[in-house]
Specification:
The complex is a heterodimer. By secondary structure, chain A is mainly β. Chain A is built from no helices and eleven strands. Chain A has strands spanning about 5, 10-15, 20-25, 30-40, 40-50, 55, 65-70, 75-80, 90-95, 105, 110-114. In chain A, about 35% of the residues are buried. Chain B is mainly β. Chain B contains no helices and twelve strands. Chain B has strands at about 1-5, 10-15, 20, 25, 35-40, 45-50, 55-60, 65-70, 75-80, 85-95, 105, 110-115. In chain B, strands 2, 5, 6, 10, 11 and 12 form a six-stranded mixed sheet that branches. The N and C termini of chain B lie far apart (about 40 Å). The mean pLDDT of chain B is about 90. Classes of the chains: A mainly beta, B mainly beta. The interface of A and B includes residues 43, 99 and 100 of A.
Chain lengths: ~110, ~120
């Protein structure tokens, strides 16, 4: 069966531009998580969704970051006015429900801000 | 709040030798622990998890880990490694309730390099 997919796989943008990163979770998974992986900070939690609502946005680094989920499925992470420190791999994961269930990770989107 | 410390950033080992990757955690409430592996240019894959019950947990690819509450450790072991085990390994603890339920806090990762 299909796993978690993310697009684009690579994104190069100029400082100050907006970017959108997409995540397609495994069908039927109600919980969706966004993480960021960077050299300096390791793997950091950003936000998670249960259905279309986001009970925990505590990991979003600034108000330039936002995310939404529609139809309990696809999620989009948007970064406005990108900065060089936003360069990282953005990982999406889904699980059958929230809690201590296995999270299945996508391959990530590598974002480079020039 | 919880945190995870992986004591070794890099572990080199020869093929067929045993290996132990160390992980210590801190958490104020119940603990749920995970080990994930990341092969080059791939996403994270679950190796094993401890939720409750037996403190010795067996996972995929011959890996196992032991939960030690008194030492707050969850070290990963394999008795005989293969070249294909070369990857980065992450220890993680799950959120301890409330709105953070299920959220993973990761250690900094350990790069395991298996030499022929």
């Amino acid at each position: 069966g299909a796993g978690v997919s993310q697009s684009p796989s690579n994104k190069v943008t100029e400082k100050g531009k907006d970017v959108e990163l997409r995540c397609d979770p495994i069908s039927g998974h109600t919980a969706l998580y966004w993480y960021r992986q960077s050299l300096g900070q390791g793997l950091e939690f950003l936000i998670y969704f249960q259905g279309n609502s986001a009970p925990d946005k505590s990991g979003l680094p600034s108000d330039r970051f936002s995310a939404e989920r529609t139809g309990g499925s696809v999620s989009t992470l948007t970064i406005q006015r990108t900065q060089q420190e936003d360069s990282a791999v953005y990982l999406c994961a889904s699980s059958k429900r929230t809690g201590h269930n296995e999270q299945f990770f996508g391959p990530g989107t590598r974002l480079t801000v020039l | 709040a919880q945190s995870v410390t992986q004591l070794d950033s890099q572990v080199p080992v020869f093929e067929e030798a045993p290996v132990e990757l160390r992980c210590n955690y801190s958490s104020s409430v119940s603990v749920y622990l995970f080990w994930y592996v990341q092969y080059p240019n791939q996403g994270l894959q679950l190796l094993l998890k401890y939720l409750s019950g037996s403190t010795l947990v067996k996972g995929i690819n011959g890996f196992e880990a032991e939960f030690n509450k008194s030492q707050t450790s969850f070290h990963l072991r394999k008795p005989s490694v293969h070249i294909s085990d070369t990857a980065e390994y992450f220890c993680a603890v799950s959120g301890d309730g409330g709105t953070s339920y299920g959220k993973l806090t990761f250690g900094q990762g350990t790069i395991l390099t298996v030499h022929p």
